[in-house]
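TA notes, week 10

Several of you asked for a full example with nothing omitted. So below is the full record: structure tokens for the whole chain, then the designed sequence directly under it. When grading your own attempts, check the secondary structure regions first.
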């Protein structure tokens, strides 16, 4: 639950992005997206406690869609589960690049002397190299993402967010006219163009607002899942709901929609400056940067462990799962670091997030369809469910599964084409499509290893017969 409480920090890349399209109605989008998280996470919590040994959303999909006594070379269920894992990994992995760009943007805005020497892109690249390199060295010695780090992340990230969400109201800097006077864009119309945009906005928003599924996925580890899971979901969901709505309200209330659009990358800097003055804003933003580094650490470890797990399950090549003496999956960490430095070259956190959101919505959609099948299929009917979602939840899951795939995926692609061009869409689909040849190679590698093991286990009867002939003793 503590790890899930670091999720509100994920609003930062979109605080200035959503108002570009829906003005102050971004506040409503955040509220509805967190409520969507409630509904989806209840389904995930039931699957987590029903399949306690499954590894999160991808594990659920692989178990539910597995092929019994499949014939041929490839297991369809394993492919679906592996692709869900890959999509989910691509949903979380670019956090490193996104927050490295944000760190560069906040430093650029906070310290003008840096802006005179480096561009925002250069600062983002430097931040990426320093942060990724530093975390690689630290994690090489076996620092694990334990509960204590989760508590630190929750505290460090929540404190500046709570301050920035509440203080502008307390100091009277929030002008409600900035919100009520710009609720929707003046040219908004409920036509196909704007409806597709809205689906895209919800797809982008859920990347942040629904990401506290860890509170549900760790359900089997709670002392009493039947009672503790709903408590964790309620606590995390309410904290996310309050913070997401208050933060967006504070930012628009202080700066106005046009002011937010002018500071789309780092809108909290002028909010902090207006609320606390120059000195206070520096302290607050430095705390925020520290929180960003901590969430990069969490994403770095989580992504590398995910790749290690996929390699161990035969869904990625074996060399990716290599670890050092301390158990750190260093090959996966190197690949992830290099991949995110390439992503930083896109130069736009919103573009990276948009590409990543395609993977995240696909993973959610497939996982919700898995819940629907697990609810209806006779093979899973008699399994114990320590936590059970309310009756008829399969209809809710199916609704949001279809909302994710295809509606939000199509919406994100459409939104990308309007704002960023087709680059982020092609990046997203290329990364996802790469999984098929990688997976096919992994299956070939696994079969070859299995064949060698089988040959090694066959007794050499010829050698035994030769020894019997040559042995003169009766």
């Amino acid at each position: 639950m503590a790890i899930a409480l670091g999720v509100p920090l994920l609003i930062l890349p979109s605080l200035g992005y959503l108002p570009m399209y829906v003005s102050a109605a971004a506040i409503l989008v955040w509220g509805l997206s967190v409520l969507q998280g409630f509904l989806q996470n209840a389904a995930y919590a039931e699957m987590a406690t029903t399949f306690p040994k499954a590894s999160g959303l991808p594990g659920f999909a692989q178990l539910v869609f597995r092929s019994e006594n499949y014939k041929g070379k490839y297991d369809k269920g394993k492919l679906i589960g592996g692709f869900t894992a890959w999509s989910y990994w691509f949903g979380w992995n670019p956090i490193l690049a996104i927050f490295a760009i944000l760190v560069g943007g906040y430093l650029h805005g906070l310290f003008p002397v840096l802006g005179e020497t480096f561009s925002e892109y250069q600062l983002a690249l430097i931040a990426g190299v320093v942060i990724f390199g530093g975390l690689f060295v630290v994690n090489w010695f076996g620092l694990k993402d334990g509960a204590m780090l989760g508590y630190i992340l929750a505290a460090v990230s929540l404190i500046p967010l709570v301050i920035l969400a509440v203080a502008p109201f307390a100091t009277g800097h929030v002008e409600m006219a900035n919100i009520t006077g710009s609720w929707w864009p003046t040219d908004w119309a409920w036509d196909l163009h704007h409806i597709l945009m809205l689906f895209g906005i919800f797809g982008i928003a859920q990347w942040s607002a629904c990401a506290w599924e860890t509170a549900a996925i760790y359900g089997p580890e709670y002392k009493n899942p039947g009672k503790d899971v709903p408590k964790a979901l309620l606590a995390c969901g309410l904290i996310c709901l309050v913070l997401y709505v208050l933060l967006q309200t504070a930012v628009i209330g202080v700066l106005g929609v046009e002011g937010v659009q002018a500071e789309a990358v780092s809108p909290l800097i002028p909010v902090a400056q207006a609320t606390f003055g120059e000195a206070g804003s520096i302290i607050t933003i430095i705390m925020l940067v520290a929180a960003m580094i901590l969430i990069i650490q969490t994403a770095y470890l989580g992504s590398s462990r995910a790749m290690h797990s996929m390699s161990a399950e035969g869904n990625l090549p074996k060399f990716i799962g290599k670890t050092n003496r301390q158990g750190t999956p260093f090959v996966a960490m190197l690949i992830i670091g290099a991949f995110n430095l390439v992503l930083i070259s896109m130069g736009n956190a919103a573009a990276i997030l948009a590409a990543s959101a395609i993977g995240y919505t696909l993973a959610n959609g497939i996982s919700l369809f898995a819940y629907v099948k697990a609810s209806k299929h006779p093979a899973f009917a008699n399994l114990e469910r320590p936590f059970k979602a309310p009756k008829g939840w399969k209809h809710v899951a199916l609704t949001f599964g279809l909302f994710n795939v295809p509606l939000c995926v199509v919406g994100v692609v459409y939104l990308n084409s309007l704002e960023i061009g087709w680059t982020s869409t092609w990046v997203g689909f290329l990364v996802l499509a790469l999984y098929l040849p990688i997976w096919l190679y992994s299956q070939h590698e696994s079969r070859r290893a299995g064949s060698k093991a089988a040959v090694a286990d066959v007794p050499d009867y010829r050698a035994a017969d030769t020894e019997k002939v040559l042995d003169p003793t009766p």
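The chain has a mean pLDDT of 86. Use that as a sanity check on your answer.
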